[in-house]
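Subject: for your reference before the review

Hello V.,

The reviewers asked for a structural picture of the protein, and I figured it would be easier to keep everything in one thread rather than splitting it across files. Below is the amino acid sequence we used in the manuscript, unchanged from the supplementary table.
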Amino acid sequence: MSRTKAYCSPADILTQMMKDCQLIDLTVTLGEEYPTSPIWGVPFMKTPFNWFTSPQTDMRGEYMDFVLHFEEHSGTHFDSPAHAIPRPDTGLPRAAEIGRMTVEKVPLEQFMGPAVVIDCRDLIGTAGPGRSAMITVAKIQTWEQEHGEIQPGEVVMLYTGWTDRFYKKFPEGYGLDRDCKLYKKSEGWPAPEPAVMKYLLKKGVRHVVIDAVSMGPIQADEATHWAGLEEGMIFTEKVCNLGLLPPRGAYFIFLPIKVEGGSAAPGRAIAISPKAC
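And here is what came back from the structure prediction:
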């Protein structure tokens, strides 16, 4: 007498799970009226390539199509190790083998994991014009005392509220980074000190996320990038809506466009979060 085992496919499991969850979009909108990166670089541009022209007058046919032109750090994007670490054959300072880890070579699994959301908004207003308040190891440890130790494979998300406040169409969008970083007229976004990356790496964290312009502070941007990226970490920057997530319990996914040899790439960031939160 044969027995038939009940089988739940991945599709069945995900379908059931999503009945009790919600999808939260953590991605800022790209557009010609929004701030891009870097502030002195190439703006986002969208140029019509074809606009419903008739086949009698244009062989391209009746459809709409645009050519997009943007810097690879525009909008919600991630930094691969190659962004800050040169290849070993370049002879440049800090060159290492991890510098060959470009966009298309980052393991897919590294882009996702259980979300740990650390509220850092209390640091805003403590740094002064043209500077970033520092997110310290002590700040991370204080969060752990309340919510539990950070575990290997978790994605640490630093909630500053910066993009929610300033990623807007111009002129409000100038507050994102031009006024604080270039003109030094206002305070910058809170950002982690290099020691935070070393602390998280020891805990098995391979992906850190921030809802601000950069993972590094205005006054020492490179050092924080070096500390994480040289060990194979990746950073996702300029996300939004982190206030919609609980400190624990959501699952984060970022899927960048796959660019050969790229140092960074924009994409879509989402969270799967319990409906109760």
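For the response letter, the relevant points are probably these. The chain has a mean pLDDT of 93. The helical segments are 10-18, 137-147, 162-166, 178-182, 194-202, 221-229.

Happy to draft the paragraph if you're swamped.

O.
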